Amino acid sequence: MSNSDAVAGSGREHSAVILLVEDEVLIRLSIAEPLRESGFAVLEAGNASEAIALASTGHAVDLAITDVRMPGGIDGVALSFTLKDIHPALPIILISGDMSPDREHRGDGFLRKPFELSQLMNLVTQLMDPAWLNKRQTRNVS
Amino acid sequence: MAEQAANSQCILVVDGDVLVRHAIADYLRGCGYVVVEASTTDEAATVLNDETISVDAVLCDAGAPGSQNAFQFRAWAADRRKPVRIALAGSVEAAVRKAADFCDEGPHLGRPYDPQGVVDYIRRLLAREP
């Protein structure tokens, strides 16, 4: 989705967009809401298929966070390959409690569950395009 | 979600189609609501059962997947200790109309978007679905 295509002419600024993929609804919510409160727009997907559907619409996505273990045929690691095929420059954070360190993936960052939200925010800040962060900080100050 | 209960009204959107759910949720967020998204009636029940989340209303696709169908889910929710308003929608147009009704009653008192524009947007999203 281009900026001009943003939902039905809301007139809202285009925030940095995070695609969040997590099958546990309460965990997804506990991650999504603090991200929104921090000024990010969050696209929520409950599994890899939903994430691919969202990413394939052309919707602007600036960073993806995905759980590794998810139901269905595609887990978070496989999803990291698919998302990179769709958006090669997309930074991806994998989160897992039990992923083997030897497993090949296309993630740019990794968090082991359980983690503190501050750890996630720090990683998001490290990986997000600096242009977005500057814009967000300017907006927060004004 | 702890601050949500005190500051904002919360709507739970239940729809198995992620593109429709995303568009409706985004629309409602633009109206000032906190929106919780659920892809199935089971996820929706999990949210309603969580005492830390105060849901004021539910907008549920009549064809939402889950172990309960949407009508069973509505009946189950009505029997909860804290009843919650449940709006069922049988089509994208109906869902957007109901969302627009929520916006008319909502925190920002007014629709930030044209409902038909939202329907058109969802149609475009669905047309691009792989």
Q: What strand order characterises the main sheet of chain B?
A: 2-1-3-4
- What is the tally of helical segments of chain B? 6
The Cα radius of gyration of chain A reads 15 Å
Distance between the termini of chain B: 34 Å
CATH superfamily of chain A, please?
Answer: Response regulator
Number of extended strands of chain B: 4
**Oligomeric organization of the protein chains:** heterodimer
Along the chain, the helix and strand elements of chain B come as HEHEHEHEHH
Give the strand order, joined by hyphens, for the main sheet of chain A.
2-1-3-4-5
- Sheet of most strands of chain B: 4 strands, parallel
Q: What fraction of the residues of chain A are assigned to beta strands by DSSP?
A: 15-25%
Task: State the order of secondary-structure elements of chain A, H for helix, E for strand.
Answer: EHEHEHEEHH
Distance between the termini of chain A: 27 Å
Largest interface: A-B, 27 and 33 residues
| Estimated share of beta-strand residues of chain B | 15-25%
Determine Rg of chain B (CA atoms, Å): 14 Å
Q: Shape of chain A, please?
A: globular
Helix amount of chain A: 25-40%
What percentage of residues of chain B falls in helices of 4 or more residues? 40-55%
Structure description:
The complex is a heterodimer of chains A (142) and B (130). Helices cover 39% and strands 17% of the residues of chain A. Chain A is of the alpha/beta class. Chain A has a 5-stranded parallel sheet, sandwiched between helices. The two termini of chain A are 27 Å apart. By secondary structure, chain B is an alpha/beta fold. Helix content of chain B is 48%, strand content 15%. Chain B has helices spanning 4-7, 18-30, 41-49, 70-78, 92-105, 115-127; strands at residues 10-14, 34-38, 57-61, 85-89. The A-B interface holds A 1, 5, 7-12, 25-26, 28-30, 33, 36, 43-47, 50, 52-54, 56-58 and B 1, 4, 18-19, 22-23, 25-27, 29-30, 34, 36-39, 43, 46-47, 50, 53, 112-114, 117-118, 120-121, 124-125, 128-130.
